[in-house]
């Protein structure tokens, strides 16, 4: 079996595994599990994690040129090593739903907005889980419950930063840094999409001053073509 | 009567109702009403709210295909259920004033800027009312007067977030989250409109290097058309 | 004398007056003047202010249609009534320096950047003066010196908002709100100018895939014109 | 030897010198050196600084027209006088690596993103060093360790500004101001690059409605050229 076949066949199970991972992770953090329940849920998390690592190793070994594959799949490596990143996979799946494939025009803008909103919500959710798990262990922490963690994520992703809540552990600060930069990227996506929409609206209604279309050009080329053919025939007949 | 006729006839009364709603809501929150006055004003608020719900139900029942109408009017549902969102209707009305209809070119940019500024001011006003009503009930609140609430809204919508004032109730934080994300959208609109303006300015003055216009193209197509007709006639005569 | 002649002749003196205003205002605030010095400097400030009001009244009385002039010069009114806005005049003057007139292409971008940077620096300076004068009178103020006011302005115009310093008076908060929104506009200008630059760079180097130019079009139109004229003459001679 | 030859030959040594400068500076700040070690490392820093000043003076004296060179190389002067700015040179070098030269299309976007990310990381690193060195001397400082300084830089460059840490010395605040404005520029670059990408994607797939290309135009011009030549020959023969 080659690498592409393997990847195609394992996509659906891996998406389900990442959903299981997300649910187990959410349960452990929000539920504040202890004792047997904690051990059980952690086992599920580790098991799904192991699945992704196995998938990565198999894909690497199946690849024709392992060095090339490794270099061109650094993103896959990141997704495999840091469990939190893996959940972005769930959104990548969205683009496989019919009617959600990347395409042109105003449909593209709708898709970018839907994807951006989805990524934003997922990011706020995951960041809230991650920061809560990191901060809970610290005695100086001020982010001590899940709703507070969600509020902190919203304040951070919009780069508002009141300072009523902030991470004090290094793990929590690493999560915070990721959230801030994601926030800048997300606001960039919103601005860029709005710009694309405004430009298209501004271009409408003065069609005569618009750039000539390639369609018009093909029409013209065909006409000139037709014009030069009979002329050449006429020339031939005239001799 | 069909749904469109109903919608056209009820638009003006509903705009007036939403104005009444806004005034009554403002009065209740800013005036800090108590006793009979509070009951009276609340009755007006509930009555106008009921009007919108009745309008929604009537429109749904008048629709040809109720499932399709429901799916394509989720925004109307949101506006009906959450009273605060309804006031955006007031701005939607602006686009019906003659000379304010969405159109092309630099007029579009002026309209977007006017609409954006209007939406921004309305949002700051409504958010200040909503956060004040939410926070007033809490003993730990630091947003305790309307001017402070307006200052907090401005600090939040620009995503500055000093942290001198911030919501402590969950309702207030929900309002805050909405204000932050609206702020990002508004700054995106400003940037995108400025970009459109700069692009158009940058394009002026080097007309020769500009994309050929569709007008030029139509001129050329007509000329080639005229060129090929007499040539064909000449051919016919020459034979 | 008509309004335009008056406006042309008074521009240079008014620019000098606004410079005197800025220097006197700066001196009063930063110097923390008292006694005779305070009275003297305040007299200069009021005198220059009076000059602008006189200029406004004269221009209004000289205008052909005073209603139209009033409606089309609301900006002039704002600049006349609120002294702080008047200093933007100094930057408007910049566009009259040779080589700084608004023009097209990459020169436009340089001008926007220079104007934006100038407006930003002037805004930070004026806002620092205004916030300091407003806050100095309050016993709860934390912005109590000019350097601190400048630091606060920088933190505010970038919408960072640490919260180590913030205005506590209503006048100071009004200044702060202006600075925040200016900051959003300035960052919008930076982004839009960068976008214009990136788009132009991205368009270079694949000239063949670029939109056909109006210059090429005029060339083609002339060629087709020339093509159709001798053909018509040939037809005429052939008969 | 002329100025250009000198500049070409000294580029590689100066890049190495700036690397040595960065390492020595990092060591002094992070290591918190004292005694002999401090003197030694400071000597290295001063020596590399001297190298850049010597380079500047030599280039100025070698220039054909020193006044013109001075006016057109103000950036070089800034880089020479403020050691921290010099390290941006390291990134300028990146553009000399084969395949990283500024070029058109989506490769340009990748380069801008790589350069932006590089500049961002370098800026956070240098700002953390600079703010730590500035703040360490103050008894009121809250930024007292390198990891805290990095966290502060991230919070500042994204303009989040929690206010859990902030500079209290004037040198530290100057660094902070630089970081904030850089953050706005960086987020502008991200937004502009995303906009360029979205515009290109939005343009794909409706090729017929796209502006006619210059390639199509050249094709057409050649065809009309060919059309007019035989016609002229035909005319000549016909006489």
UniProtKB/TrEMBL annotation, chains A, B, C, D:
Q: Which InterPro entries match?
A: K_chnl_dom, VG_K_chnl, Volt_channel_dom_sf
- Name the GO terms of the biological process aspect: monoatomic ion transmembrane transport
Q: Has UniProt tagged this entry with the keyword Transport?
A: yes
Q: What is its main location?
A: membrane
Task: Please report the record's description of how this protein sits within the membrane.
Answer: Multi-pass membrane protein
| Compartments, record wording | Membrane
Keyword terms: Ion channel, Ion transport, Membrane, Transmembrane, Transmembrane helix, Transport
Potassium channel domain sequence ranges: 123-199
Transmembrane feature ranges: 12-30, 36-58, 70-92, 112-132, 144-162, 174-199
PANTHER family to which the protein is assigned, alphabetical: POTASSIUM VOLTAGE-GATED CHANNEL PROTEIN SHAB (PTHR11537:SF254), VOLTAGE-GATED POTASSIUM CHANNEL (PTHR11537)
Task: Name it.
Answer: Two pore domain potassium channel family protein
Provenance organism? Microbacterium gallinarum
Tell me the lineage of the source organism.
Bacteria, Bacillati, Actinomycetota, Actinomycetes, Micrococcales
